[in-house]
């Protein structure tokens, strides 16, 4: 397919031009008004042309599934969440699912009896917004053959029981997932790193062709099998599919109060949970590295980030730290020094600011410290952690630039990023400029970003998305 993207602004240069695509590449940047010569013409009307956007951290099966769940994002208490799910129209004998609740500041606690009271004998499964907590009714626990005093499961138990819950057929969920990539393409996304805790390589080889490139991240329990298959990070494993890094959890999350911190939480001497002590972690990282598999460590609390950086230092290779939500100021320069990418999700910051103010009081000047990391030379790559945040890079960019998503002033505005830096962190290392010879993974935004008010970033129209030289979205 030949395309002519007419009258577009090239990144943040202010230059207006026509951009010609043929095959899989940008073949020319020409004066505005160039002849079409048979190409399909898309009129950009001065809008901005950028390299295609990358969501560097999403959970695609969970994102696709969450699009089918009852939203509990507005629940103000556990009792309120139970009341909301009770009005959702349950079907007897089937699992009723809800998601998106934030329990960190609730005055009461989730408990199975709250669900049993409003929906007697109904199987109910509720997922926290950060996916680290699963709240089940008694009937749902019977479905998975477990008993528990509260029906609330966190971290490893949460992950295991999530996988054990009844689910639609694979054919159905595969259609949901591929449709979710089309929704991402409509927001300018051309690549997604899929951090689903499954055999992502096998899953994506089975599915129809996605509307984005997919990096198939390796779960820890599949490391040996991945090595036996002879797969290395970056290897192609299908059309638009490559192998991603190995993902290992260092700690939990803020909202579950399991992020591992130097200082204790306000309600006692508890510091969170360290899920991978260094003496257990290092042999696994060395095995992966020796077999050509990249490394991605989930670390949210400041103590978890210190230990993750220590691990990279000990084995002498770079990698990724996913989330990096609370970072000790002494550790900020270590990211660049060790060649560790900060894979961050700016959309979490507005969602978590109140919980952070409570649970990390006195430390929030180095929470979600995107500005400090950038000034120290760290490489930032943005993701959504969908379904924790919406799979929409413009929400992440807006959050990084403004540090708010409501009427309140920006939270710790010293950590704001300039717009061009935030956009560059969303292009997977390709910067913000499109040049002749560049891969034809592109997004055409319907506004000139050089003069756009930050308040309008979340609602940007996407005129076209081009993947490997073909249109995956067009208004």
From TrEMBL:
SUPFAM superfamilies: Composite domain of metallo-dependent hydrolases (SSF51338), Metallo-dependent hydrolases (SSF51556)
Organism field: Actinophytocola algeriensis
InterPro entries with a match to the protein in the record: Amidohydro_3 (IPR013108), Metal-dep_hydrolase_composite (IPR011059), Metal_Hydrolase (IPR032466)
Domain Amidohydrolase stretches: 40-472
GO MF annotations in UniProt: hydrolase activity, acting on carbon-nitrogen (but not peptide) bonds
Entry-linked Gene3D superfamilies: 3.10.310.70, Metal-dependent hydrolases (3.20.20.140), Urease, subunit C, domain 1 (2.30.40.10)
Record protein name field: Amidohydrolase 3 domain-containing protein
């Amino acid at each position: 397919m030949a395309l002519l993207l007419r009258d577009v602004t090239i990144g943040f240069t202010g230059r207006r031009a026509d951009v010609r695509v043929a095959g899989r590449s940008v073949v020319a940047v020409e004066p505005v008004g160039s002849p079409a010569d048979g190409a399909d013409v898309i009129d950009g009307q001065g809008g901005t042309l950028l390299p295609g956007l990358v969501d560097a951290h999403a959970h695609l099966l969970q994102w696709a599934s969450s699009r089918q769940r009852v939203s509990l994002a507005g629940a103000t208490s556990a009792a309120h969440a139970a009341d909301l799910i009770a009005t959702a129209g349950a079907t007897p004998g089937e699992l009723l699912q809800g998601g998106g609740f934030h329990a960190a500041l609730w005055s009461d606690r989730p408990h199975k009896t709250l669900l049993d009271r409003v929906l007697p004998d109904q199987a109910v499964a509720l997922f926290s917004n950060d996916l680290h907590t699963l709240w089940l009714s008694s009937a749902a626990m019977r479905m998975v053959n477990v008993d528990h005093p509260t029906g609330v499961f966190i971290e490893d138990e949460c992950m295991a029981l999530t996988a054990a819950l009844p689910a639609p057929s694979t054919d159905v969920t595969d259609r949901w997932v591929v449709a979710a990539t089309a929704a991402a393409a409509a927001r300018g996304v051309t690549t997604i790193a899929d951090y689903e805790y499954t055999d992502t390589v096998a899953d994506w080889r089975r599915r129809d062709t996605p509307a984005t490139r997919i990096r198939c991240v390796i779960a820890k329990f599949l490391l040996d099998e991945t090595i036996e298959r002879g797969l290395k990070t970056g290897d192609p494993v299908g059309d638009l599919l490559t192998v991603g890094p190995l993902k290992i959890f260092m700690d939990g999350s803020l909202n579950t109060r399991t992020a591992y911190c130097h200082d204790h939480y306000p309600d006692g001497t508890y510091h969170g949970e360290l899920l991978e002590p260094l003496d257990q972690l290092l042999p696994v990282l060395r095995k992966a590295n020796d077999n050509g598999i990249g490394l991605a460590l989930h670390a949210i609390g400041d103590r978890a980030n210190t230990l993750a950086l220590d691990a990279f230092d000990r084995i002498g290779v770079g990698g990724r730290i996913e989330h990096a939500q609370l970072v000790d100021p002494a550790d900020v320069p270590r990211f660049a020094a060790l060649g560790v990418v900060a894979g961050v999700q700016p959309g979490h910051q507005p969602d978590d600011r109140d919980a952070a103010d409570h649970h990390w009081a006195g430390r929030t000047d180095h929470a979600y410290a995107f500005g400090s990391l950038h000034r120290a030379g760290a490489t930032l790559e943005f993701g959504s952690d969908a379904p924790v945040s919406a799979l929409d890079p413009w929400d992440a960019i807006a959050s990084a630039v403004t540090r708010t998503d409501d009427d309140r002033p920006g939270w710790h505005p010293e950590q704001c990023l300039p717009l061009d830096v935030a956009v560059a962190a969303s292009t997977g290392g390709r910067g913000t400029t499109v040049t002749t010879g560049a891969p034809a993974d592109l997004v055409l935004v319907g506004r000139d970003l050089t003069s756009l008010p930050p308040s309008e970033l979340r609602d940007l129209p996407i005129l076209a998305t081009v993947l490997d030289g073909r249109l995956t979205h067009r208004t």
